Amino acid sequence: NQWTREARYRPLSDLAPEVYQLMKEEVRTSPWRFSFHIQPPTGLLNDPNGFVYHNGTYHLFYQWFPLGPVHGLKYWYHMTSKDLVHWFDEGAALIPNDDPDSHGAYSGSGFIKNDQVHIMYTGNKRDAEWNRHTSQIVGHLRSDGRIEKHLPPAIPTVPDGYTEHFRDPKVFQHQDVWYCIIGAQRNDLTGCTVVYRSEDAEHWTWIGELDTRYDQFGYMWECPDYFELDGKGILLFSPQGIEPQGDRYQNIFQSGYLIGDPLNLPDVTFQHDDFVELDFGFDFYAPQTTLAADGRRILVGWMGLPDIAYPSDRFNWAHGLTLPRELTLENQQLRQKPVQELTALRKETLYAQELTLEHHIMPAQAETFELELSHLQLSSDQLELKVRASDQEETILRYEAETKRFTIDRSKSGAEVPAVEFGTSRSITLAEPLHTLRLFVDRSSIEVFLNDGEAVASSRIFPKSTSQGIVLTGDATAHLAIYTL
Ligand code: FRU
Questions:
Q1: Ligand 1 mean position, distance from CA 222 (Å)
Q2: Entry's Gene3D superfamilies (predicted)?
Q3: Ligand 1 center to 340 CA (angstroms)
C-alpha cells in the first residue's frame, strides 16, 4: 500500500462491504491479535475517547483509522461493557463526514447530561492549502448507536495566542458548572492546557490558560484530563518534546500527571508537585479516566505511540488499549492497580503455592496468562522472570535488590522489536523493595504492576506464539500464582 494523502483520507464508505469484510477476516486471523485487550477490527487504533459510565454500562470509544495501520481519517469506534472485562463491539459511532471534522473526528471525552451519553471532541479540518482548522464539537449518543453532532461547533475557532494544535477536550462538572480542559500549543510553540466553562455544556466561554509551574515543558500537550481524588487535584496530560533524563522520558512522547490542590477554577491556577510519568513501559500514551459506578477512578491508555512502526503493521492493524486500572491515592502518590473485575479473565490455575526458590524454576508454560508473585522475600541480589521464552527469544523482567531497580528488557522479545532507536530496556527505581508483582501477558503485550500499583509498565512484544516458557530465577520465598487467561 502506498499511503498517499489521498489514501489516508479515504472514507470507509468508499469500500464495498465485501472488501471491508475480507479485510476484517484477514486481520482477524493474523498474528499477534490480542486475546483479552481491546484492538481494532482493521486498521489503526489510537487514543481512548469518551470513556463514561451510564445506567449499568461503560462506554469506551477509541480513535480509529479503518483502512490501514497509519494515521489518517479518524473515526470514533465504540465498545461497551458491563464489567470492564468483556467488551461488546458496537462499531463506528462517530463518522468524520461534516465540514468541521472533514479530516478527522479527533479525541475527546464523554459525560452524562439529561440521562444521555454526551461527548465533546475535536473536529479536524484541512483546507485546500492543507492548513489545519480546529474546532470543538459537542454531540450525543443516539439509541441507534451513532453520535449525533450538535453543529455548528461549540468552540468554532482557536483563541488568539494559540496555534491550530488545540484539541482533545475533557469535560467535567464542578458545583453544577461544566468545565472543559483542552490541550494546546502557544504561538511560541510551547505546550499548555486551557479551560472553558459552560452552564449547559453547549455554550462555552473561555476562562484562561491553566497556570502550572511547567511553563516550558515540550511543544504540545495532548489529551489532558482533570479529576479530583481524596481531596487532591490531578491533571493528566501527554506532553510532546521532552528530552530523556536518566530512566525517565525514554519514549518518543510521554504521559504523566501533576498532583496538587484542587484546581482553583475561577482563575485557573494550580499548586502542584513535580511531573510524574504514569507508566515506565515502552508503549503507553494518551490515557483517559472515568468514574465507575461505585466511585472508583478508572484509567485506560493507548498501548502504543505516535510515529512508531510495529510488526503487526504489515497485517493491516496496529495497537490496542491497556487493561483498565483503578487509581488510588496513597501517601500523596497515585497508585494504579488492575481493576478487581479482571480476575474474571482467569481460566485455569497453572500454579498456586508457597514457593522456596533456589536458583531457578519453570513453573509453567503459557501464551496468555496472569502471574502474581506476592509476599516476596528475596535473599539473592537479583530476581529474574522470563516470559514468552524459547530457545530463540524471551522477554526479561529483572529486579536488583540493592538498587531497587526494576528493568524490562525486550531486546530479545521476538524477531522484530519495535522502536529500537529508543532503546530496548526500560527501568524504574522503586520506593519500596519489591514485594508484589502482578503481570498480565497477552499474545503481543505485557503489563506489569509492581508493589500494589506503585509502578506500572505496559509494553508490546512480538514473540512467536510457540514461545511460552516462564522461568523464575533467584533465591527467595514468595507466593506464586499463574492463571491462563
Ligand atoms: C494523540 C492525538 C490527539 C488527537 C488524536 C488524533 O495521540 O494526536 O492529540 O486528537 O491523537 O488521532
A1: 7
A2: Exo-inulinase, domain 1 (2.60.120.560), Glycosyl hydrolase domain, family 43 (2.115.10.20)
A3: 29
